[in-house]
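Usage example:
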Amino acid sequence: MTENDGLLLLALLLLPLGTALLLMVVPSRERSAIIALTAASSLAMFLVSVYVFLSYDYGDPAQFQGVRAWTWMENVGILGEKGIQLKVGVDGIAAAMVLLTGIITMAGTWVSWKIEHRTKDFFILLYVLAAGVFGTFVMLDLFFWFLLYETAVLPMYLLIAVWGSTRKEYGAMKLMMMLVGASILIFAGIFAIYTEAGLGTFDLEALFGADYPVSFQKIFFPIIAVGCGTLGGLFPFHSWSPDGHAAAPTAVSMLHAGVLMKLGAFGIIRLGFQVLPEGAEFWAPGLLTLGIVAALYGAVSALRQTDLKLMTGFSSVSHMGYVFVGLGTFNAIGITGSVLQMFAHGVMTALFFLLIGAMYDQSHDREIPHFSGMAKQMPIWAAFFVIAGLASLGLPGLSGFVAELHIFIGAFRAYPIVGGLAVLTAAITATYLLRMFAQSFFGEMNPAWSGMREMAWPERAGAAVLAASILWLGLWPSPWIDRIAATVEGLQGVAL
Amino acid sequence: MNPDLNYEYALLLPEFILAATAALVLFADAFRQELRVSRRLLPWLAVLGALVAGVVSLAYLDRSDDFAELLTIDDFTTFFRVLFAAIVVVLILGSHEFVERHVRHVGEFYALLLLATVGAIFMSAARELITAYIAIELLSFSLYVAVSLTLGDRRSGEASLKYVLLGGVASAMLLYGLSLLYGIAGSTQYAEIGAAFAAGTADFEWALVLSLALLIGGLGFKASAVPFHMWTPDAYEGAPLPITAFLSATSKAAIVALLLRVFGGPLLPAIDEWQWMMATLAVLTMAFGNLIALQQSNIKRLLAYSSIGQVGYMLMAVTAISFETSSALLLHVAGYLVTNLAVFAAVIAVHNRTGDERIAGFRGLAETQPYLALVLTAGLFSLAGMPLFAGFATKFILFQAVASEGFLWLSVVAVIASTVSLYYYLQVIRQMYLYPPDGDAARWRPSFTALATTGGLLLGVVFIGLYAGPLFRLADGAATALFV
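Running the assembly step on the lines above writes:
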């Protein structure tokens, strides 16, 4: 990537923001204009994100590429030279996450066209959310990083409370207060890091290189990790997640479970592993423990759920547990696996929520026992569902396998017992998914649902893009692995 | 007259303009039949006067003069002069319809607003204790009367009476504290008090602690810091909405200016004696202001407690006083003023239509008036310190400055308090977006001036939120004047 590609990284932030602003002036009854605008904008974001991912040069020794900075505020008050800059740039991890966001934003846009209630307002908020997510992945200035991180959370309240279902007000308020509450810890961490570094700048690259005493790192790493981890569904701070997911409208669940939760894990890497590496090394076993507990707990809880969306919500907690296990191994293969898992889980869970939404809009019922023989009624839908499910339980050839394999190897290297427990979790995952397939998809057709129709075209297209990503990562993972591993191996203190 | 002193009256031109406008407004109102002027003219006259005063103030940029050793005219004063003049302009533009309908004695109303502004400016400019005290009283007396001007609402008179009585007690405390301070330091001049402390000649420890406690108590009352906040919710509720806005904007900012001048100047050498008091006051104010706000069902009371919480953040910055925190505090105050005025302008515009002061009165606003709902949402999110809006940027910088002075725990308390505040701001946002309108569901349009003021303020809130640089530089210049 060249410096000029930094403009494209900035475009990833400005495109959704600009779209949101444009939408504000489009009259709400002009549905076709709204659809055309969002179609064009989401396609543009997708193409830019593909370009960013492909053009990231993993052979280049420069860890951050496409770096470009615009002076924002400097030499004023507490700020010194380069105090706050609008600075963009990606490493291999961020490049993969940008691609994930591009894919899911586009698919999420497509499936949201069928929303009837205040469509325009929905898209405005959705695109503000997307801007926050893209921005967090590409920002290399701590002030803007956190500003956009919070921006990604901000629209969730209204998105869930206005357009959601099932206990939406409760889910929205719980999610909002837990996430903003967790941000208190991130605030504390940022204030402490800035003060301790004493550089007078929020430039992340400068903060990576600053010197922090080991005791300081040991105190503040867990604070950052819990603060960011809450958004990532880190056990035991995950309880907003199943409720929030169950309540959220389809596209919001997709973006939220697919991308927003990854911001949490990404934050742990950016602020934790990259700024406070010695603290991270010290606390890695703790992260690993919480991760494996979450994986097991989420899987066991998913076994007990009858609401399809709650089951997926707990499944997300379980899969995000793998991410923390991978991070906690503190070896290159485990962390690489954990980033792969972020991507794999992102596309897979987005596909799940897309499909659940496609069904729920017709049935207004998500109780698994109420369904049977759905594969006869909606074969395409069921086929996509099976792809997502098989990816989720780690079938070779699909995305989940690649990611989980890396994590398991990393875990066996670090702590064999954890590796064993992780494999056990995969078995439980297979149990609840296969059981659900058997119950709902096969067997006698339940005549109550004979009126259900196959997915609409935008939904099929969205599902196809997501399924293609699952297959691509499963069959030819090296584009991801090369980029991610190049960055992970550069992390300080990580065992190769 | 002492010939050694500088009596350059031109230094006080903006205040003369404001006071003359006030007199003119009163005169025009009293003789409006003889002069054949409409009452409609009065707000425009007041706006014009404030506008001219604000513009004239800019002529004093980069100067540092004193008037008879009573007032300092430097960038710090200019900063507040412009802010306070702008507040009057925005406030009158946003509320003149409200005033026509809901306020007794319109002429007096505008005159008091202008006179209170003069008092506020003198609070930021004073360099001597007695002048500072007189400035505080000018502001307070104007507001005591203004609070009672709501038409046909008995709560208004009650609020005013409560405010006067408690305000009198606070003034007594303040005066006692000031006289003790004079006794200890041997002068009422800030500079000489500072010199006395620095030279160690002012070493009456218990008298000093008592004097500081009385001083902080008295000023804390005027700033409505917990536990001296009892008058605030009643006064806010009884006062006409624009006066409520003024109480939460100008009068808070003026106290901050005075605190910075006094505690960043003459009392800085005695910081060990007062820092803990200020820290306690800040924590109590942040905690209780925000916690009690959770239970309110009236929008004015909600905003009253929210402004108490906001004062807590400002007191916290005074606790950790330094050049850096002062410049961050000035930035935050300016951002807070813009945000708060945006909220009040929107509330006033809605109130003009609905006449409802309950939070539930905002039901369905997103359908009947989506634009005002947007302004209000942006304003409330900004007050809560959410990103894209002014509150995030200014709080981030303020809290970071406080943390950098070694008060990380205080800024964490402040972030927790902000998070609590988000909950009650969301209650208002919930009413607007989640529920259908109660009665009349027809779309309506606010007046042009309401649209223009809210629009301008909304732009300000977003601009500061994304690009606080220019404002920060101005704040920094003002703080530099303080710490030369």
